[in-house]
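#onboarding

Welcome to the new folks! Below is a worked example of what a typical request in this channel looks like: someone posts a single protein sequence, and someone else replies with the predicted structure as tokens. Don't worry about understanding the tokens yet, we'll cover that in week two.

Example request:
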Amino acid sequence: MASVTIKDVARVAQVSVATVSRALNGHGNVAEEVRNRVLAAANDLRYTPHAAARSLSSRRTQTLGVVLPDLHGEFFSELMRGIDQVARQHRLHLLVSSYHGNPDEQGAALRAMRGRVDGLLVMSPYVAAPTVLGDHLEASLPRVVINSQNASPDITALGVDNYGGAVAMVEHLVACGHRRIAFIGGPADNFDAHERLRGYRDALARLVPDAEPWVLPGDFDEASGHRAGREVLAAAERPDAVFAANDMMALGCLFAFAQAGARVPGDIALAGFDDIPLARYVHPSLTTMRVNIAELGARAARQLIVQIAGEALPATGALALVPELSVRESSGAASVMPRPDPRF
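Example response:
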């Protein structure tokens, strides 16, 4: 049987050979309906482009690089799910690396991607990120930075409105009648943690001016949330509510409360941030700020593919996803109306 060629795909999809090439190479200037038709035709014919020839002709690797601070945990799993879905739609591969939460190793991970990828997705939530990225990112390589304190106007940045989300959560807790609200912070060098702490402090000062901020150290993991929960329980006067800067710490805190027999929300209310999938399945279900984590990854991947195709992005500065308040049982709201989660 003769091998299938790109001309066969063009004939079945009823488009030109050039359009087939653009669709399979992930160019952005192809209508979605046409791209889907080309991909369906290529799939039906079991057409596989010759990787070596395609790479030589286009000087592309058909690979996106992804550099993350870690690969462990539901946040990164959801982020990768969104990135992978978009990459698969465009028939692109992923080369993934983690620098294990160590900013000093980030430069090595970035340098290792050189010559191997057509563009980079980098999550760099550290305060020193602009300097690190500037030192190790090639100026000619398309890149999108996720959740970074990005000071460079020539780098596309996509993140989360962490400050606004934290303000909204404090507003919700105060509306539930809580006045003494403790906060479990994140890593000292993490930009997301800084913004969430800033939102907590500002909202508390505005809404409950006579309340003292109560900030407990955390590290964005369950163990630090558990330690913070035990510290809260040992205090002479317990808070009305605890707001953890992410869900993993909130779940660790919830476990500490359960071990001690403290009822949530009867004795202490609890809230988190991110809305990882597990948050709705613990007891009591966790009130949190919902970040569409998979969509964050997908949107970043789409923007990177547009850059690789050579299309100019609008100069809108950093783009921020706005978190949505998900009210569940743990915050002690007077009325909790469960609603279906669109992810499931």
